[in-house]
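We now fix the convention by which a protein and its fold are recorded. These numbers are not coordinates but entries in a learned vocabulary of local backbone shapes. A record is reproduced here so that you can trace the correspondence yourselves:
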Amino acid sequence: MASLVFEARNLTKTYLMGEVQVQALRGVDLDLFEGELTVLLGPSGSGKSTLLNILGGLDAPTSGTVRYCGVELKSDDDASLTRFRREHVGFVFQFYNLIPSLTARENVSLITDIATNAMRPDEAHDLVGLSGRLDHFPAQLSGGEQQRVAIARAIAKKPHVLLCDEPTGALDASTGIVVLEVIERINRELGTTTAVITHNAIIGEMADRVVTLSDGRIQTTVANDQRRSARELSW
């Protein structure tokens, strides 16, 4: 059995909006395993982005614990969380956050120049199928190509974990499928533990597990035994 990467227990998150308390998470338990591709599904406001941000050390739970490879992520230790994010986690968001004045190569070099044991920018672009667009600026790229540059930037430091929050939200359906296939390829070829928030149902067929959230709680967890078996055979 694959080793445990994330162990989240009884996570709650409450936001104060004026005098109103909004409960984003209500006692969530979740395990993510080595090399696994997990999809988080649910309507807007279900708590999936909050959960992903807590796993990635971008937000802190109101209560509950998160352990990464057996070590608890301390919400009051900013230095450790910064180091955790820098050394272990790659993030992909709905909006690409590329620097317009830099080429695709230079956007990725921002990471590779400061990371240890990083890929070369051209290697990262090869993995996302953009080897011919290295010297193009974001304005010269389509939305799908810009998102693939963002993925190349996220994986260039060879992160242990890749967290993707609605990576196809700003794309049309066919382009979104291309981006999701890139994420699935990264998971398969690099063995990166991956969690993806998406409304695109096709990714469920690519995933090891689909976790559905509603009203801040996990409602269902469905395993894709066929993909798991294929991945285990490839090992």
In short: Residues 82 and 164 are 18 Å apart (CA to CA). The chain has one domain: 35-60+88-234. The chain has eight helices and ten strands.
